[in-house]
Amino acid sequence: KFKGQIAFNVETCIGCWLCLKVCSARAIEAIPEKKKIRIIVSQCISCAQCNVVCPKNCLSMSEDYLVADTDRYSDALIVK
Length: 80
Prior knowledge:
- It is a single chain.
- 12% of the residues lie in helices and 21% in strands.
- It has 2 helices and 5 strands; from the N terminus they run βαββαββ.
- The chain has helices spanning 18-22, 49-53, and strands spanning 6-8, 28-31, 36-40, 59-61, 78-79.
């Protein structure tokens, strides 16, 4: 059960936002107009609570663990 960077399958997301409610790090933001989410990887603490609560299993922990950038809100660190 490796906990690397969070991975998100946007096609299976139904926009229930349960992940947003359980994220203690506030790394997940809602995109209401698209009924989707955005994940700020630099804020994620890899607790995987969002994976557990997701009814469609569209969130998972990947094998990627090196997350670095000079800008914490860089597009490279945001999963959409």
